[in-house]
Amino acid sequence: MGSGSEEVGKVAAGAIDAMRTQPLAIALVIINAMFLALGMWLLSRINDQYEKSAIRRDGMLTEMAKTCAQCPRPTRMVVVQTEPNRRKPDDLSIDER
C-alpha cells in the first residue's frame, strides 16, 4: 500500500489523462470556472451597491437627527372631558327598543 501523496498523484494523473481524451470535459471545467468568476464579480458589485446605499442612509439619518434636535418640543397636552358620553334614550336604534 502506497502513501497518501502517491495515491493522490495517481488520481490526479488519471483525471488529467481522462481530460486529454475528452475535450468536452475540459470545456465543461472551463465553463464552470467562468460561471464561478461571473458569480463572484456579480456578488461583489451587489455588495458595493449595498455599501453605498448604507452610507447614504446613515448620512440621511444623521441629518434628520440634527434637524429634529433643533425643532421645539411639544408641550404636554391634557384632555379634559367636561361631560360624560352617555347615550340619550332618543339615540337608541329600533333594534334596541
What's this model, at a glance?
The protein has 97 residues and is mainly alpha-helical. It has helices at residues 4-21, 23-70. The N and C termini lie far apart (102 Å).
Task: Describe this entry's structure for a reader.
- This protein has 97 residues and is an all-alpha fold.
- The chain is 68% helix and 0% strand.
- It is built from two helices and no strands.
- The protein starts with a helix and ends in a 27-residue tail after the last helix.
- 0% of the residues are buried.
* Radius of gyration, in angstroms, nearest whole number: 38 Å
- Mean pLDDT over the full residue set: 82
Total beta strand runs: 0
Distance between the termini: 102 Å
Please estimate the helix content.
55-70%
Number of separate helices: 2
Order of helices and strands: HH
Sheet with most strands: none
Pick out the low-confidence regions: none
What is the molecular shape?
rod-shaped
Instruction: Look at the helices and sheets and give the structural class.
Output: mainly alpha
Strand content: under 5%
